[in-house]
Amino acid sequence: MEDILRYVAEETDLDLFGITDHDSTDGARAALEVHRARGYRFDFLPGVEVTNQAGHLLCYFPSGEIHDIPSLRPFWWTVRHAHERGAICVVAHPIYPPWLTGTIEKGLVAGERLEALEAINAGLGEKGRSRLEGVAEKLGDSLGLTGNSDAHDQSSIGAAYTDFPGRSLADFLVALESRQTHPVFVRTPSVARSARAFTTRRSMTRPGWVRNIWREARGRLRST
User: What is the DSSP letter of 147?
Assistant: First the structure.
């Protein structure tokens, strides 16, 4: 984990960096401990990317008090559960799976609360980014917008980011609440073969993705 934080410090100009592993807070917890011990120039935002019944949800813990969020539950149940534990919730790549956007819209109409959606994801291809742009235009008046590298290996860090007034985590939270965040696409990352294999296995564009993720999540639960 120290290698990743050193890479951010030396190879990027990011002022805020987050780690959101799939359905696990282990990486975020380890990174937070290293970040606190080393005193890096950038702020750190720990989190987790939670697989739920409608897609993926990024749950961030700005207070530094990290909570495990159950996987494979209904989307809005997951959002409420995370909010009750102090998280801010951002929808990851809301074009995958295809019914996720409808789930978001229905919940917002019903009075549910959500901080933001990922309007740029560097891990998507050109067609996917275009579709994501359309969703952002549709829901951008109701939610904040973020840009994420969705990095599955170190070299992808910084391939997209969220621009906001200021530099600190506190500045980011204010900007998110006031809808002053702006997603920025930098480049299409060149992903290592091992990382591509992981991404392909979990891709919501492929047949059997629900079965694959369900097996992974259940296996992780049995091993803990």
Answer: E
